[in-house]
Structure of Xyloglucan endotransglucosylase/hydrolase:
Amino acid sequence: MSRLASALLALATVAAVAVAVRPTVDVTATVAFGEGYTPLFGFDNILRSADDRTVSLLLDRSTGSGFISSAMYEHGFFSASIKLPSDYTAGVVVAFYTSNGDVFPKTHDELDFEFLGNIRGKPWRMQTNMYGNGSVSRGREERYVLPFDPTTEFHRYSILWARDAVVFYVDDVPVRNLRRARAGRDFPAKPMSLYATVWDASNWATSGGRYRVNYQYGPFVASFTDLALAGCRAPSPTEEGCADALAASDPAVMTLAKQQAMRQFRERNMVYSYCYDTRRYPVPFPECDLVESERTRFKDSGHRLSLRRRRVGHRPARPGAANKADM
Ligand SMILES: *[C@@H]1O[C@H](CO)[C@@H](O)[C@H](O)[C@H]1NC(C)=O
């Protein structure tokens, strides 16, 4: 072997070892239901496709349903493409979230996507929230209208939980970025499971409980596919390396373009923010960036002034989106 060839071989070996020891996180990998999840409740209302890559959760008169990840994760990228129930869905809630409330009831951590059903003709609203170390008295709810109809096609919803930040994504657009340095002790710090559920929230979901679930329109079906569980399994000695890899992964890197897309989404679609809810929280939380031009669009209840006044350029205002601010 020539000196050059052996030098190249030595280099290649070093590179291979370096690659082998650095844990990687493939945020694009999807799994079959049985590879990553187990049914949680309402077993008869969980319908799995023949290839096991799509699962539908039903809510009917007898019960809702839900599934849970088979493992717990400390940090991760959790994602699913979801199609929400259509037609009259008042009182119906579809949730996609991480939590460890079963393991740490007093000091639990949680990251939420919650989809709140609506009366016919009015759009679903989406809520995101975070709890850390039992911060249940400090809800950090934000609500948004979606810039598409989430009942006609699948859209991807993702939660990135990295060491220093949580980012919620809708399709490939970041819609919320919570940094640990700002949220401090309320930032999730213990292993969590991933959950997906559909349930009857008649007392809360739609206009504060004004509209209850009407089972004449049931069963309500939420379908999940493109299931991704790119997480650092806990407990695991490689967790450090995995968390590093996750921090360097695409979803964790907030490029300028992503920050701009996030700002635009929030300007157009956010209809409630705990940061502007000075009735509930007279002193805003440390992670709240209070932008004066933005604050004037919200009432002191945290709800947005009527969306009808918004000028959204090329997109006509949707009739159903009006007056959402009061719900
Ligand atoms: C979490 O909460 C518990 C109980 O309130 C407290 O003792 C502990 O110091 C907290 N942990 C962190 C990391 O803040």
Remarks:
- Confidence is low (pLDDT under 50) at residues 16-20, 311-327.
- The chain has one domain: 22-256.
